[in-house]
Amino acid sequence: MIRYVDMLRRDAKMFPPLLTSVQPGASRPFVSTDAVDRASDEYARLVLDAGARISLSAYDKGSLCEDIICAVRQSTSRLVDRHTADMIGNTLLDALHRSSSFLSAIAFGIVNGHARVGEISYRNQYEMNDECAERYGDIQSLTLSDIHNFVPDHSCICPISEAAEDSGGRPFVSFGVAPDEQSIEFPSWQEGLIHEVIHHVTGGSDPHQDAEFRLGPVEIIARKVADEMGWQIPHFAGYAASEREAHLRRRDLSALCQSAERYEGDPSDFFERLDVLSNGTLASPFTDEIVGATPTPSNSTSGVSTHWQSHGQCPSVESLHLDHRPPYIFHFRG
Length: 334
Ligand SMILES: [Zn+2]
Fold this sequence. Notes:
The chain is about 40% helix and about 5% strand. The protein is an alpha+beta fold.
């Protein structure tokens, strides 16, 4: 089982090197004997250079969009709220349309046998530290007042941020709930989501040692995507920089507070759902479907993406209108 853990205080897992290089002029890169450490910053350049030489057809891109939509839709019983589902879908689709680096990373992954972006499902899983569990009980016992009183550097609850595989070998991303679109935390949340997806599609790892003061290939690519997308995020010199960790703690706690405040039902239902999801159990899916959802067969000619076809009804990408400006059109609500 592959597991890329981004949780604070957890050690990054080491991965064997991937043997990959690019042959100039070749339509597809192929494997060489040059060992490249997937946790090295050099790996980011290799991924982006190799991916840029792979051209995906319009059909392929359309199929990737359909796959992403389906993957998000099928994740709703593992996500806290519709807003989070919407924002995951929009962030990925927007990046697919506007970020050449994101497209390069995805193309690299397809050719080199890594996870395909449309195969990745999404979860909101959180955990409480033991000390807090004694004081507050489990997640479902928390209240709005509790989480508002938490201090980011000593928050009792934090999201499990990781790119991993389930027991069946299917890739998933666990990440925090989405903050409000207009919040200062939103661009950072988008970049963090892309970071986890980049783990899967490139097979890249974070720096092995916390003491290494560098970003690592996954964060380098994610920040390049953010730059191309115009997401305003603070600069950090290293993956394990204390400033970066403090920023992530503030962002994640603030996002959780925003999500709890957005919740339209009884706040206790919010924490109950969060508890269920955090235990790895399926919650009830959102009942509304995507606007204009109509099943349409994929016409992909290169076999890049057929995942959605085995998962039943999914929308035609033509039924979606993406204008890349909020408010987004892609919604899970009716
Ligand atoms: Zn990571």
